[in-house]
Specification:
Blueprint: H1 2-35, E1 41-48, E2 51-58, H2 65-69, H3 74-85, E3 89-93, E4 96-97, E5 100-101, E6 103-110
Antiparallel strand pairs: 1-2, 2-6, 3-6, 4-5
Helix pairs in contact: 1-3
Length: about 110
């Protein structure tokens, strides 16, 4: 029974994570592609020392951390819910990415 519960929990984490990634990429697409002639969206994932890190970034117009914390966006609300449920955290950076403004969100989970 324990193995089944663990497998079901793992599937739920992956489902939540997949939904959040899609929402963040769609948000990047909406903002990065709306203002750039040559838009760029990045995705990276790494697993190191029992820690999973996922970064979604773009070369859009950038935003502020306060704006994201108070956003009514479905993707951002889902991000907060998922991080709370799975005891994750996030880091935010709205700075220059290769000399172009943009936004990067890093999700971090201890496994």
């Amino acid at each position: 029974a324990y193995e089944m519960a663990t497998w079901l929990e793992f599937r739920r984490v992956l489902s939540d994570l997949g939904t959040v990634i899609v929402e963040l990429i769609l948000n990047s697409y909406e903002h990065a592609y709306a203002i750039r002639e040559q838009p760029w969206i990045g995705f990276s994932a790494s697993y190191e020392g029992q820690q999973l890190s996922i970064i979604i970034s773009d070369k859009g117009r950038g935003t502020t951390e306060d704006s994201l914390m108070n956003s009514s966006s479905y993707g951002i609300k889902l991000l907060h819910t998922m991080l709370e449920r799975w005891r994750g955290r996030w880091e935010f950076n709205s700075a220059e990415i290769e000399h172009v403004s943009g936004t990067a969100i890093k999700m971090i989970f201890s496994l």
